[in-house]
Amino acid sequence: MNVIENSPFTKKLSAFATLSEDELAVLERLHQRRRTFAAGSDLVHQGQPEQAAYILAAGWACSYKIQQEGTRQIVDFQIPGDFLGLRSVLLRTSDHSIEPIVEIEAAEVLADDLLEVFASTPRLAAAILWAASRDEAMVVEHLVGLGRRDADARMAHFLLELGARLALVGMGSKAGYTCPLTQYHLADALGLTAVHVNRVLRQLREAGLVTFRDGQVTFDNFDRLVALAEFDPGYLDQAGPILK
Amino acid sequence: MNVIENSPFTKKLSAFATLSEDELAVLERLHQRRRTFAAGSDLVHQGQPEQAAYILAAGWACSYKIQQEGTRQIVDFQIPGDFLGLRSVLLRTSDHSIEPIVEIEAAEVLADDLLEVFASTPRLAAAILWAASRDEAMVVEHLVGLGRRDADARMAHFLLELGARLALVGMGSKAGYTCPLTQYHLADALGLTAVHVNRVLRQLREAGLVTFRDGQVTFDNFDRLVALAEFDPGYLDQAGPILK
DNA sequence: CGCTTCATTGAACTCCTTCAAGGCTCGTGG
DNA sequence: CCACGAGCCTTGAAGGAGTTCAATGAAGCG
């Protein structure tokens, strides 16, 4: 029993495909170059060519874009087990910034390492691409929320989706989860102001649906929250990949 | 001189990599199975497992998601040269619907064809993935627009981006382009109502920035429109891919 | 102990929606 | 050939969801 089997990244990929001893060993090697980054210090900066990608081992990060006027839109949050900058390292381009929300621990993955993994263990490659595809589906769902959901449903959907993602790596359940985000983070992700985020959270709390307080999300009434958000987790748990 | 060199798909990929005779031949084969679809008839339906992908040869389509209440959010438009359902065919999942906006002509591409291309001509594969990555960057930019741009800037940005994409396949310029979208399409894409789209278009027209009328987009003052939209085409023309 | 960050609440305002009505164009059938 | 309906565009008036401005409190930290 190796420690690698308990890494969030392995947990996540295991949900996609049963991994062999060999594949676990490859994952072990990918986790070699451990680094830590302080909260708030940009990992990747908008427009900079990127040299490495990272597998997030502990802590939370977010990818975002800044507008000229200074407003910020958070595109996605990254939690343990998520890849940071996968696409950009393969394609030598980064159109957004990535910032650790708390101090994070991440394994650096160079482009060559990644290409080697793709060449040597295609099943692993498929699982990784699959995870990437799920991330993309989440971005699409996020877009739909910004375009066609009101603030309440948007918030509800967001908190539920985050819960589902955390559950996949053993960090959340239908009861709730620990969450280091501030109301400003929520505002920048949901396209709202922090003031309004506060009001929405109060409404949801007073309606007995969900409580966001002191870094803790508690689902007070999971089913009614799902109904309000029209939350359909179908886009999160997909069928098997095409490569065997 | 082969006809394949004039296909929009080839034009687009050529912007990413210079293609050899062999690669052009492979593209030729990909274009074999031509099919046409009538406007309005769903090509892919939300939730259905998808068997094939398509390369759009002529006409416009859009990918969208429908909410329970019936509201619709258009995620992206596809123009000639674009891939339809690339990710979903590789990963056997489709979380959105695709609808032709006008009658379209598309080449059907089976998963096996695609895998063969990826195995036999890696440079072509890289160019295709690269195009896919650009599409993803556009979705992200779309998300930013919905979250952090007001209706005017959103519309301006959208019309400019579409122009840049069309220019890549020789269907648009700084002067403008032909565009079969209705104001309802714009509304569903921009997260607005058709009524408000109409007002926004009027404002932009009366301000002498851009005219959207009778299926024709005319840039009346390109530079001021770019300024209003804070349009930075950086995310559209990327540096070269990592695979040579 | 002051400074910064985060959360909270009220009041005024505004951007966008909703509701409603009317116009234009084009294809279809009487 | 004209009537009629369907789809799209246009405009006004009223209402609402979310913003902006402003002020206060609580907690963490050097």
TrEMBL record, chains A, B:
Ranges for domain Cyclic nucleotide-binding: 15-90
Keywords associated with the record: DNA-binding, Transcription, Transcription regulation
Family matches, as InterPro entries: cNMP-bd_dom (IPR000595), cNMP-bd_dom_sf (IPR018490), HTH_CRP (IPR012318), RmlC-like_jellyroll (IPR014710), WH-like_DNA-bd_sf (IPR036388), WH_DNA-bd_sf (IPR036390)
Name by which UniProt lists this protein: Crp/Fnr family transcriptional regulator
Superkingdom assignment: Bacteria
Biological source species: Parasedimentitalea denitrificans
Record has Transcription as a keyword: yes
Keyword Phosphoprotein: no
Domain (HTH crp-type) ranges: 149-223
